[in-house]
């Protein structure tokens, strides 16, 4: 069974928490361009409101009756929320038609956020839809990222040079001043706290070029002003991505070799 919960925003005021929790807040009808907000298309209305409205689709009073239906629709939302069964059976029909209609209507309602974060971030939203299934999937995505980051760390930790490159780029630290165990420990901590970023950079094909550019900036072979990266009087990139593109362009190989030679001199 597929269920979601329509929940409300907790309003903090001078009243005791028990009273606030016991209050029922109503999500009411909404008018858009002088017409009540409809949660269904014309085709869906004919299918799902049939039997709920006391005239059949196609009847001369059908438009008037459907308008009245949406104009009078409201839901009382207690502290714990309203559970809505939105399952569709094997025939394509909602298992709980009215609950499904309310769900479709709430999705379009300007006072309802698609999730709690959207409700909190957008003024005027007082309710949100909690979807346990989506929440589980989202949490599992994070689990998978952490698992992938763990696997990548095991590979990286066996390559001292790869660890050095990652430390320079991710921690903005000179890896040559760190012992091997310190490198590994620092990367492990970073991976634990930033699994997505660790995974992204450990698999980045341009990682070594970026590390070399970072080293050149540190050694003053290159200058960094804001995001710009400059060699002498020439801006080789408006940001790091541009500078990497510059380095990879064979037309710039002469200048790149000059930079590498200067880095070697000062290292």
Q: Overview of this structure, please?
A:
There is one protein chain. The protein has 267 residues and is an alpha+beta fold. It has helices at 17-22, 42-48, 62-72, 97-108, 116-121, 132-156, 160-171, 180-193, 195-202, 207-218, 240-248, 253-266, and strands spanning 3-8, 25-27, 31-32, 35-36, 75-77, 82-85, 112-113, 127-130, 223-225, 228-231, 234-237. 51% of the residues lie in helices and 14% in strands. The protein has a four-stranded mixed beta sheet. It has a three-stranded antiparallel beta sheet with strand order 9-10-11. It has a two-stranded antiparallel ribbon with strand order 2-5. The relative contact order is 0.09.
Task: Using brief descriptors, characterize the structure shown.
alpha+beta, four-stranded mixed β-sheet, three-stranded antiparallel β-sheet, 12 helices, 51% helix, elongated
H-E order:
EHEEEHHEEHEHEHHHHHEEEHH
Structural class from helices and strands? alpha+beta
Number of strands: 11
Low-pLDDT ranges:
none
Terminal-residue CA separation: 65 Å
Determine the strand fraction and express it as a percent band.
5-15%
The number of helical segments is 12
Q: How confident is the prediction overall: mean pLDDT?
A: 92
- Calculate Rg over CA atoms: 30 Å
Largest sheet geometry: 4 strands, mixed
Proportion of residues in helical segments = 40-55%
Q: Assign an overall shape.
A: elongated
Placed side by side, the strands forming the largest sheet appear as: 6-1-8-7
